[in-house]
Design a protein that fits this description.
The complex is a heterodimer of chains A (79) and B (769).
Chain A: E1 3-5, E2 9-12, E3 14-16, H1 19-30, E4 35-37, E5 41-44, H2 46-55, E6 59-60, H3 65-74
Parallel strand pairs in A: 2-4, 3-5, 4-6
Antiparallel strand pairs in A: 1-2
Chain B: H1 3-28, H2 33-50, H3 56-74, H4 81-104, H5 111-130, H6 151-164, E1 168-173, H7 186-191, E2 196-203, E3 220-226, H8 230-236, E4 244-249, H9 251-256, H10 265-284, H11 291-308, H12 312-328, H13 332-345, H14 352-365, H15 372-376, H16 385-402, H17 404-414, H18 419-447, E5 448-450, H19 452-455, H20 458-468, E6 473-478, E7 483-485, H21 486-507, H22 511-516, E8 523-532, E9 535-542, H23 549-558, H24 564-569, H25 572-576, H26 600-609, E10 613-619, E11 623-631, E12 637-644, E13 647-652, E14 656-663, E15 667-670, E16 673-678, E17 681-687, H27 688-691, E18 704-712, E19 715-721, E20 723-730, E21 733-734, E22 745-750, E23 756-760, H28 762-768
Classes of the chains: A alpha/beta (79), B alpha+beta (769).
């Protein structure tokens, strides 16, 4: 599963497709303050980014530079 | 006239011509976004250029055209044929203004009013939709989100755009809310932009509370600043065209967004001159030992100047430039920085193109090492034709001068008896001959233009005339890439207009008539160009109803152009070619003729003046074909030297069919005229001595006559001469001054030995017989 709800944080791993957006939204609805760890996320579909933007959740930036650059502009104050 | 204005006029003509062609193509193919984009860009460029001058009506008309094309591009308005009419009209108007600019450097007084009229006509197409959609796409309106770009990113963007010489584009990409269901991933698309300078991602509407969020309704908008060409971006976003706005922006746009410093004008001027002086001073410095000191002192000066001018935002840029300059051991970063400050100081000019122009000259003056490749990219050089003509004339003289070498060699041998020197001169002659030949070829190549150069205006002519006459005509060109000398191509222009206009007027029938005789509704006018034996052959054919030879004959009879007997003896083809006779068409209404006839003598004289020939063939009911044959160049000509009564004369080699020796006994007389039989055909014969009123020929010992067979007025004619000589390459000079009245000769030419050669006007000589 690319999206996992662990005790400490939600993690997004590898390629996250549009289907995952619903799951991520579900997790965040349960626990809106949970941090989302994107360290191992390679790519996320736009719908997931939109969920993260709407949730104003704290995130851990991905290692993937391109994605990190993009997310920095989308989620400037959530690091 | 101002050189810039001349350049503007020339470029504007080219752009308008291209736009005309493209609009016609667009009319045929309304869905072709490439053509639409090209037209848009051409108009856009032209508008920018026009802004350099105070030609406000031009700029306004172009702005409206640009709006229209842009709306078309965006799919906001639907294409229809009347739009092309309106746009073409606008282009025509500007063309006519260009002519008056050329004449007296200003627009006609009524130009603003004319502009208003045209704009009103154009706006008819815009008004439906333009009101519903505010003009956010127009490049002219500032792109609001550019002001969100932070200072550092701005400077970085300007620097990269300037250093890498890349066009900068602003992309606003708002995927529609259903895009996820079509499998689109906007992030993927946005990430495909290679040279992304800056990006912001915002929700289109504020996100609702998380419980109400629909993750699959896209609510995201991308603002991207990147170093890409519009074309690349358009290609990238080709499937999301209506969700994207791509605008090319210039470094100035980013600078303009900055808050203008609040400085008094005198201070501003002072700052301006300090900065300029610094820029010049930096250029002059090259001493490596004191480099770092210079950089530091210059930066210090700049910093204090800027601080006193309240431009604190720029101080950081200077600091950065200072570090970079020391790192790279060049002044360039500081120079760039100064120029940026200068640019931002210039009050937002009316047009950014003016600034671009200025920057271009700035950088060339400053010998900026990075500016050089920019100019080197432009590989095309526009040269005044007069200069080329001069080179060509000189090369022509050279050709003639080199022809004197064989004479010299001959004299060395016969007069001075130095055979070895004669041989050496001959050897030298061979190499000089080769080089001049190559020079001539080279200059010819420079002057070569494709036939398409003259053909490109015809689709428009055909379109407009056929619309006016309610005919349906397709204009086809084949082999328009065939090249010929510029003068020849230009000489073709008028004859072609006459011929094609005739075809449209009188040749092609109305659609109803065509259908009734079983022809396709669309008539075709075809122009086929090809190159044969150093000549350009142009064939203009139509599939109309052809020429009625009987009508031509009757008319020629009535006008007394031919006699009854002649009329009987002429073949159908010869009858048709009577339309070329001067005075044939001008006397009566053309409509009497079922075929053509308007100004065909103009066609013929035009073509013949350029050394060409024209002929006409027609089949009733099937169409008419006009063949024009032109030499490829007019520069030098080959003439055959003939002798009559110890004098030499020249005959253009194009006319010569063959040279034969015939026994005197094979010459007969028919009525008063001499003829001879050549390969079982009777050929009229003219004695050159008689024609030129020279002494009568005393019979040859071997009783043979030298006869030059030439092609004249559509048939072969023999010219009896004393002897033939070589053919030589000469430059023909017209008979000028007092010599113009001399009949029987067309030109003179200078031979290698310094003697003057007269070129025979055989047509006149033959007709005088």
């Amino acid at each position: 599963m690319p999206v996992n709800n662990y005790e400490q944080e939600i993690t997004l791993v590898g390629e996250c497709t549009a289907e995952e957006a619903d799951i991520l939204l579900g997790f965040l609805l349960e626990q809106p303050d949970k941090k989302v760890n994107l360290t191992d996320c390679e790519h996320m579909h736009c719908s997931l980014m939109q969920v993260l933007m709407a949730a104003h959740t704290k995130i851990k930036m991905p290692g993937n530079e391109r994605l990190a650059w993009l997310l920095k502009t989308a989620l400037p104050n959530t690091n | 006239m101002n050189a810039l204005l001349i350049e503007f006029i020339n470029e504007a003509r080219e752009l308008l011509e291209d736009t005309g062609t493209n609009l016609l193509a667009l009319e045929k193919n309304p869905g072709d976004t490439d053509i639409l984009n090209i037209s848009f860009r051409a108009i856009h460029t032209l508008k920018g250029d026009s802004g350099l001058f105070e030609f406000e009506p031009i700029t306004r008309v172009l702005h409206t055209c640009e709006d229209m094309l842009d709306q078309l591009r965006e799919g906001n308005i639907q294409f229809d044929a009347y739009m092309v009419d309106a746009l073409l009209k606008a282009c025509d108007l500007i063309s006519s203004w260009l002519s008056s600019l050329e004449e007296d450097e200003r627009l006609p007084l009524q130009a603003p009013g004319m502009a208003d009229d045209v704009i009103k006509k154009l706006q008819v197409f815009l008004s439906d939709n333009a009101t519903t959609k505010p003009d956010t796409n127009s490049n002219e309106s500032t792109i609001y989100w550019l002001q969100n770009i932070p200072e550092a990113a701005r400077i970085d963007a300007i620097e990269r755009a300037t250093l890498e010489c890349m066009p900068m584009c602003a992309v606003e990409y708002t995927p529609d809310d259903q895009c996820f269901f079509r499998g689109e991933d906007p992030i993927c698309l946005a990430q495909q932009i290679q040279n992304n300078l800056w990006m912001e991602i915002n929700p289109v509407n504020p996100f609702p509370a998380l419980e109400d969020l629909d993750p699959y309704a896209c609510n995201i908008c991308f603002h991207i600043l990147c170093l890409e060409t519009i074309e690349e971006l358009e290609y990238l976003f080709r499937f999301s065209r209506n969700q994207t706005t791509i605008s090319e922006i210039f470094p100035e746009d980013l600078l303009q967004e900055q808050s203008q410093p609040d400085v008094d004008t005198p201070e501003l001027n002072c700052l301006h001159s300090i900065l300029r002086e610094t820029l010049v001073a930096l250029d002059a410095m090259s001493d490596a030992d004191v480099f770092e000191g210079r950089v530091k002192s210059t930066s210090e000066v700049l910093r204090s100047v800027l601080k006193s001018a309240q431009m604190h935002s720029m101080v950081d840029a200077i600091n950065q430039a200072e570090c970079e300059a020391i790192d790279q051991a060049v002044f360039l970063p500081i120079q760039l920085c100064i120029r940026k400050i200068l640019d931002s100081l210039n009050k937002p000019a009316q047009n950014r193109t003016a600034k671009r122009e200025q920057r271009a000259t700035d950088s060339s003056v400053n010998k900026d090492p990075l500016a050089e490749p920019r100019t080197a990219n432009n590989q095309i050089l526009k040269v005044d034709q007069a200069r080329l003509d001069r080179i060509m004339a000189l090369i022509g003289e050279m050709v003639v001068a080199k022809n004197s070498l064989p004479y010299l060699s001959q004299r060395a041998e016969t007069t001075y008896g130095v055979r070895s020197l004669a041989r050496e001169i001959k050897e030298q002659y061979v190499s000089i001959n080769r080089i001049t030949q190559e020079m001539q070829d080279a200059i010819m190549e420079v002057r070569m233009l494709p036939v398409s150069h003259v053909l490109q205006r015809f689709p428009r002519l055909v379109r407009d005339l056929s619309k006016k006459l309610d005919k349906k005509i397709e204009f086809v060109t084949v082999g328009e890439e065939t090249e010929a000398d510029k003068n020849m191509i230009e000489a073709l222009s008028d004859p072609l207009i006459h011929i094609i206009r005739n075809s449209i007027d009188h040749g092609i029938e109305t659609p109803a008539e065509r259908l009734s005789v079983g022809k396709p509704e669309f008539g075709t006018i075809k122009v086929r160009s090809s190159q044969e034996n150093g000549r350009v052959e142009i064939e203009i054919s139509d599939d109309g109803h052809g020429i009625d030879s009987e009508a031509v004959k009757n008319k020629a009879l009535r006008q007394g152009l031919i006699t009854e007997e002649e009329a009987l003896s002429l073949s159908e083809r010869e009858l048709i070619n009577l339309v070329f006779r001067p005075g044939f068409s001008t006397m009566e209404q053309v409509s009497e003729l079922s075929g053509r006839g308007v100004g065909m003598d103009v066609v013929r004289s035009g073509v013949e003046r350029a050394g060409g020939t024209v002929s006409l063939s027609s089949r009733t009911g099937q169409g008419t074909t006009v063949n024009i044959s032109l030499p490829m160049t007019m520069a030098t000509s080959h003439v055959v030297l003939v002798e009559a009564d110890t004098q030499s004369f020249g005959v253009p080699i194009e006319m010569v069919v063959e040279t034969v020796k015939i026994p005197r006994s094979s010459i007969f007389k028919i009525k008063q005229r001499e003829v001879f039989v050549l390969r079982e055909r009777t050929v009229p014969l003219v004695q050159l001595r008689k024609a030129l009123h020279l002494r009568e020929n005393t019979a040859n010992a071997d009783d043979e006559c030298a006869v030059l067979v030439v092609r004249l007025m559509g048939g072969n004619i023999g010219i009896m001469v004393d002897d033939f000589h070589d053919n030589v390459e000469v430059i023909l000079k017209p008979l000028e001054g007092i010599m113009t009245s001399i009949k029987g000769f067309t030109n003179t030419a200078l031979l290698g030995d310094g003697s003057v050669l007269l070129i025979l006007d055989l047509k006149e000589l033959v007709q005088c017989q």
